[in-house]
Amino acid sequence: MNRFADLLDMLAFTPSRNAKLSLLQDYFRTVPDPERGYALAAIARELDIPAVKPAQLRQLIASRMDAQLFAYSYDYVGDLAETIALAWPEASGSARGRNDAPGLTEVVETLMASSRRQGPGLVEDWLDRLDPSGRYGLLKLVTGGFRMGLSGRLIKQALAAFGGVDVNQIEELWHGLTPPYVELFAWLEGSGEKPVNASAAPFRPVMLSHAIDGKDFEKLDPAEFVAEWKWDGIRVQATSERGISRLYTRTGDDISATFPDLVDAISFDGALDGELLVARPSGAGIETGSFSDLQQRLNRKTVSAKQLREFPAFFRAYDLLQDGAEDLRARPFLDRRTRLEAFVLKLDPMRFDCSEMLEFDNWDDLAALRAEPPFAVIEGVMIKRKAAPYLAGRPKGEWFKWKRDPFLIDAVLMYAQRGHGKRSGFYSDYTFGVWREPGELVPVGKAYFGFTDDELVEIDKYVRNNTVERFGPVRSVRAGLDKGLVFEVAFEGINRSSRHKSGVAMRFPRISRLRWDKPPAEADRLETLERMIDGGP
Amino acid sequence: MYGPVTPEEPAYAAIDQGTQALLRPAIPPYLSAMLMKPEDLLIPRREGLYCPPGDFYIDPVRAVDRALITHGHADHARAGHGHVLATPETLDIMSIRYGTDHAHQTQPAGLGESIRIKDVTVRFHPAGHVLGSAQISVEMNGLRIVASGDYKPRPDPTCATFEPVACDVFITEATFALPVFRHPDAAHEIARLLRSVGRNPERAHLVGVYSLGKAQRVIRLIRDAGYHGPLFIHGALQKLCAYYQSRGIALGDLRPATVESGAKGDFAGAIVLGPPSAFGDKWARRFPDPLVSFASGWMQVRARARQRGVELPLVISDHADWDELAATIQTVAPGEVWVTHGREEALVRWCEMQGIAARPLHLVGYEDEGD
Fold this sequence. Notes:
The complex is a heterodimer of chains A (537) and B (371).
Chain A: H1 2-13, H2 17-30, H3 35-43, H4 54-62, H5 67-77, H6 80-87, H7 104-112, H8 119-129, H9 132-143, H10 152-163, H11 167-174, H12 182-188, E1 210-211, E2 225-231, E3 234-241, E4 244-249, H13 260-264, E5 270-282, E6 285-288, H14 291-295, H15 305-310, E7 313-323, E8 326-327, H16 333-345, E9 352-354, E10 357-358, H17 363-371, E11 378-385, E12 399-403, E13 407-418, E14 427-437, E15 440-447, H18 453-465, E16 467-471, E17 474-477, E18 486-491, E19 493-496, E20 504-507, E21 510-515, H19 526-535
Parallel strand pairs in A: 1-12, 7-9
Antiparallel strand pairs in A: 2-10, 2-11, 3-4, 3-5, 5-6, 5-7, 7-8, 11-12, 13-14, 13-17, 13-18, 14-15, 16-17, 18-21, 19-20
Helix pairs in contact in A: 1-9, 2-10, 5-6, 6-9, 10-11
Chain B: E1 14-15, H1 29-35, H2 38-41, E2 43-45, E3 48-51, E4 56-58, E5 66-68, E6 83-86, H3 88-98, E7 105-108, E8 114-117, E9 120-126, E10 134-140, E11 143-147, E12 169-174, H4 186-199, E13 205-208, H5 214-224, E14 231-233, H6 235-246, E15 254-256, E16 271-274, E17 291-295, H7 302-307, E18 312-314, H8 322-332, E19 336-342, H9 344-354, E20 357-360
Parallel strand pairs in B: 4-5, 5-6, 6-7, 11-12, 12-19, 13-16, 13-17, 14-15, 14-16, 17-18, 19-20
Antiparallel strand pairs in B: 1-8, 2-3, 3-4, 8-9, 9-10, 10-11
């Protein structure tokens, strides 16, 4: 258990992404099967252990220590598993240092083979045999509460780096695999064949585009390309085979359970690439909702009837990868597009449509279209080579995204937080605000990039010289009508948000310019941002 | 005004007495209780713990005429008192920190030596917290109160080991008085540090340590673990490290953490020690991809470590942990326990469960954060 607990600890305290990747690879290298596979399943949240309920854990600790002392402890620590792990009374003497502490494999396999009634007793016995760090690992394992800032993507990248294979290959296989992934590790280590994905409706690695801007167009002949709107939803893949339908994100996470309305409407055999949106019936057709509407549906385990009614999920198709038994991916885009149009005609029009192709003769025509999109939920145009096959990953020269210009606002620096690693010793993470009333700034976002190293040094100096208060690693910075630092902040979109004090949340904000010249009183007002939600930049 | 006091001319008369007698209360508790109430001997006041019959304070938080100081940490030892009685090491540390004129008069108290102040007898006993740290026993008419200051019972190669002293009232700290605080073996934590250094040869390890006590203990533990390369220290640690070394505590090759050639690479793979406050400072920029560590009992709690941006938390404390607080109270077996600075309510609760009379002592001005 301790090897697993150490991994959890290190992942939790390591801020750097690269360091996390190398920790995971080291773990896969040094820990044998099946333990490494169970650990992988646990951190990827793929391990379905008959749950030991938090209430049962509370009962266990209540049988071991004074309730009042436990309450004081829990109040201080704030995390149930951690409090129990630390406060669990250790049997004195012999039990400590006993050499029979259970390993991760024993714990997982025993729990899998046990009934819910047996669970708490098993956990109690293990708690007696483990040290605090092992207890923490065990309790997090049984409660499934891993919040470590580890994305599924990062875990798959670690596997890919460990095996020296492309991450697409991992994504393609992932949903056909089950813990403890012995076949997968054998293949990654070169001692076994690549596992065959036997599951129905597997994920197909997605084709991605490169960003493009003005001067790049000189090298491209408009006659070789087509274009369509870039919709601001979630890129997804809808696939169905042998009666099994699934909806995947572009990194291969299965989100079918979150969108039952859409998955139920899948009446085809094949695989579509497209954009997940919200669309409501309107007249004879549909009306596309905003990204904020879609957010009402994201990251939910269960979805209410009200949400299904008010925010119906909709699929706007871009591409057809598989039609029945036929794999179309090697064919040129135009061929696939013709097939796609015919394919989508047979689907429920309230749930599926086909992305509209844009008419243009030259790049200036396209620029004019891009400048005035018909809906706010369009975030630019996609440019695709007519002859391009559907290739996994981000192949060069085939697909381009030409995003609309970012939103820009002027905001005032309010708080600065110390950075990590190479930015240790610098205040590098900034919270900025806009005026709600004259003299009242309200924070609207946070950014930690977009400036050069030299600018970082200047901002840092400003923060130190204008600190009003310090809270641990955070400083609040002087920010008033006539004194303060103005940032020009660029961002991709803005939504209403009840979780933020300002009522708005920006997407992908970054510092685009330092406005040392601008008096803070002239920074933007909250109303300006609120107008952007519906109107665009 | 007092004139300068030298050890040959103590302000208070030392009483010659064997230390054996200290381990039993002078008079049975039932009798002493009839003679004198603990509140007559020591009471909390705004300035600190006050002894009316001796007219002195223990660890006063503001300047007073007569102060008895348990140890040199800034919240216990302040400058500006009229007369200070403390162990020679604590007096030296106060001189290093505040200058030799930090008090009008100072008087060293030897460990175990009985010193008479008016009708009160005081003695200093090792507290095991930092170099020079002492518990102060205050006795009159057969009633003995021990103010333990900050203490830790486990052995520490940089200071004298804590010594339990039998008493009627034991005043204990409560910095880590929650059952979640069980400090692991410090050597185990140092081994984790050295493993991390081995794993990250391109990064500089910045280990946060408070300048008095923790710094020298961590350095000494690193040496005891077999690491003999140079250790780099922030300027704030330098004088106190030199002082520890002058008192015979070997700390090995210590070098200032300054960039002479200007190359960041100089500190790749190095262990650098400094006060945690320096890590947010410009000082930290000279190190290559710093890995921030912090040696403190607070590092037991993950959220605390993450809040401070600590990548390698080391649970090393100079205070008693929960089990040690309980064991100490059981060993000392006082008639009553007074609990101060920290999580008083949990320790008072524990005492109640054991049938030991206990109450919180609401003293202000002590930082329960410093460890």
